[in-house]
Amino acid sequence: MDSTLQNHFLIAMPSLADAFFHRSVIYICEHDENGAMGLIINRPTKVMLKELLGHLRISNEAKTLEDTPVRFGGPVQKGQGMVIHDQLESNWKSSLPLSNDIVLTTSTDILEVIGTDQGPRNAFVTLGYAGWTAGQLEEELMENSWLTVPASHELLFSTPAEQQWVEAAKILGVNIHLIANASENKQ
């Protein structure tokens, strides 16, 4: 494969009607000749992080966890938790640097300190992920299901989830709502 979309966002086109991916923004964690894996970043669930930690019997008293929703990362392995964060110099058991300022951690040891001074400065937890087999994502791109843009630390960690779809398209200079109107008029 000549190019990779790792550390890019996929922005769902307005015409993408799939229940899981409608108006989604996906952070691509891996992309190679074997397929791709990413996390939907703009789908907060009703489960708060404090509640999830209680269910896992992880003690963490950070106040911010009470108001921090776990995000729906995608329809594959919905029980698999993953943490996207920005602390590279970590000692977590299972971390994978995705860029020079973004890390994916899948071990639960990070959950003991998330939201505290010992944890990463910026982080969020997802359950599940989105996956594509070899060539599947490329086919969806050719079908104009997605826009792509290099990932932005600010969009990932500082933009509210409900604004990420519109703001991700703005990185490309696109008003996503105008695309929606154009595609609806062609029908």
Automatic annotation (TrEMBL):
GO terms for cellular component: cytosol. Pfam families: DUF179. It comes from the Bacteria. This is UPF0301 protein ENI26_00315. InterPro entries: AlgH-like. Belongs to the UPF0301 (AlgH) family.
